[in-house]
Amino acid sequence: MAPKRWIAIVVLAVACGVLVGAQQDARLAALDAALTRIFTTRDFAVPSFGPARWSDDGRSYSTVEAAAAPAKGREIVRYDAETGAREVLVAAPALTPAGKTEPLSIDDYAWSADRRKLLVFTNTERVWRDNTRGDYWVLDLDTRRLTQIAPTAPASSLLFAKFSPDATRVAYVRANNLYVERLSDGRITPLTRDGSATIINGTSDWVYEEELGLRDAFRWSPDGQSIAYWRFDSSGVGEFSLINNTDSVYPAITRIPYPKAGTANSAVRIGVVPAKGGKTRWMDTPGDPRQTYLARMEWLDDRTLVMQQLNRLQNQNDVLRADVKSGVVTPMFRDATKTWVDVVDDMTWIDNGRAFLWPSERGAWRHVYRVPAVGRPSPTPGADASAEPRVVTNFDADAISMSGVDEAGGWLYFIASPARATERYLYRSRLDGSGTPERVTPADQIGTHAYTLAPNARLAFHTYSRFDRPPVTDLIELPSHRVVRALTDITALTERLAPLVQ
Q1: What average pLDDT does this structure show over 399-406?
Q2: Measured between alpha carbons, how far is residue 327 from residues 227, 268, 271 in Å?
Q3: Across the chain, which distance is largest between two alpha carbons, in Å?
Q4: Backbone φ, ψ for residue 353 (5° rounding)
Q5: Cα dist. 203→127, 130, 206 in Å?
Q6: How would you classify residue 168: left for phi > 0, otherwise alpha for psi between -120 and 50, otherwise beta?
């Protein structure tokens, strides 16, 4: 819930209780003043943390903080997770483009695999709901050179830029086409050329964005030699008229492709193209591309894609394996119910690729299942391809979402709330499904909890809130839940709120 909305709900709820039977003008005036402060000032802004990125070994993390005066802007710092030792990795002046006086604003950032280059997303604009279009800059930490990606492109026109695995190139989408830029000399290679109002490469149409949560629609191969991407053909899709009565005296009409129930969807394909340019190999997915949804896709290895394909009723989700050289597709697993199935965002491979974790409502509860990789050649002999999915979260409650895996220790961490749907707690279960899940969140911390686990599942960023308590974030140790240190401080906010809730 947005912090300001949380504050407003608390103030209104308390005010309603106070004013029943005592409609005092002074109290109403105070309430009006309080609501004005909530939405026009930062007096009640909840202290924020991040965006933060764990290191691969889980021993440190980087985050964004305001630069110390007199410097302007924000900088990226590294913290040792155990000791809290702070190191400035990228000072604000290093993010100041040549000829400019102020550093780039950091809307988001990503590290290269070797942590020697930084990709900064800035000057962003909204596409439907999220700010996914903007400008990208690369900072080389060895040379301290700051370079804009596609510098001649219109401002705020790039989407989803990401490093190649070796960080020598950056791929991105612009104007519904996919490009790769070589960082050494700025050479740009178009991978698709047919992007238009109806042909969409590397990003999604309205249906996939709205209904399936898909926006970023391309993936680098692990070896950096290829890129897999979605292609949408929305020709033949009916158009819907949006009327804008707010921006001018006369209404403006915007028409967008918008399929209604039973009408034509976009035809969607997934293809793999060489990163140096060339012909796309299309995956031979089953069914009518206008009557199915290719909801998710990831690389399993340099030769293999794994895709999720929904039927149009969305009560069947097929996990498909595709050979990227031939385009041949093999079924691996089907999740089906009589009513509805979810798209799975947190599909996690375990046991050296012989199995994966899959959340599903195929039974009486939403559980996480351990599913054998049927149809995929096992890297080690002896895999039981006939084994059925096995419940991992074995109790009478919904496993709301997976939080992380400690495969070395044999544990799955997940969010559940067996007693009340309005609360969220961290649990863990044995990966083999034995025993009963155990609660990790302390029993006396009633409310809503969110966790971002480190890759080794030994530490986590933990955010805790409830109706009468603003969100606070700390660093904790797992599975003890011991607080290593606070990451945000709500003392000042609590003091400012106190007069309003008495």
Answers
A1: 97
A2: 14, 15, 8
A3: 79
A4: 85, 5
A5: 11, 13, 10
A6: alpha
**Percent of the chain scored above 90 by pLDDT?**
78
Is 422 buried (19+), middle (13-18) or exposed (0-12) by CB count in 10 A? exposed
Q: What is the pLDDT of residues 74-129, one digit of tens each?
A: 999 999 999 999 999 999 999 999 999 999 999 999 999 999 999 999 999 998 88
SS3 state at 48: coil
282, 291 in Cβ contact below 8 A? no
For the chain, percent of residues with pLDDT exceeding 70:
92
Q: Is the Cα torsion angle 28, 33, 36, 38 positive or negative in sign?
A: negative
Tell me the DSSP string of 403-456: EEEETTTTEEEEEE-SS-TT-BEEEEEETT--S--EE-S-TT--SEEEEEE-TT
User: Which residues sit opposite 242 in a β-bridge?
Assistant: 254
Residue type, 40: T
Residue 312 near residue 292 (C-beta atoms within 8 A): yes
Q: CA-CA-CA-CA torsion for 289, 293, 298, 300, nearest 10 degrees?
A: -70
How many DSSP H helices and E strands does the chain contain?
4, 35
Regarding predicted confidence, which is higher, 225 or 8?
225
Of 440, 400, 394, nearest to 417 by C-alpha is 400
The identity of residue 488, as a single letter, is T
Taking only the tens place, the pLDDT of each residue in 156-182 is 999 999 999 999 999 999 999 999 999
Q: What are phi and psi of 8, to 5 degrees?
A: -60, -40
User: What one-character DSSP code corresponds to residue 122?
Assistant: E
